[in-house]
Amino acid sequence: MKGAALTPNNAMKSKNYIYTNKKHADKGVMASILGLISLVCLGLITYYAFVQRGTGMERLASAMLISCIFSLAGLALGIMALLEKDTFRVFSILGLVMNGAVLGLIGWALYYGNI
Fold first, then answer.
1. By the 8 A CB rule, do 95 and 36 touch?
2. Residue 56 sits in which domain range?
3. Is residue 6 part of a domain?
4. How many CB atoms lie within 10 A of CB 39?
């Protein structure tokens, strides 16, 4: 298109923009943040349980309880974000996956008595 005048129609066709009214759900972003915090907390709990060789378990158990509460809240927020209309679902699904993984790992740890 060298030398040709760019009209609004030509400019839009050449850039391939997609216009939408969708936005990221705030609840979905918060669910992802809570899932990330819970995963990091669970990783630190596992590390300190290994380093301390099973001593000081009361503190680690209380940290696991807080991680579980964060994960449950993140799971609820992720479900609410999925039910919203005209929003992107990336952070909602990411939050659901992370929070579900944390709850599954906590359940596994409690069932097998590792922590």
1. no
2. 27-112
3. no
4. 18
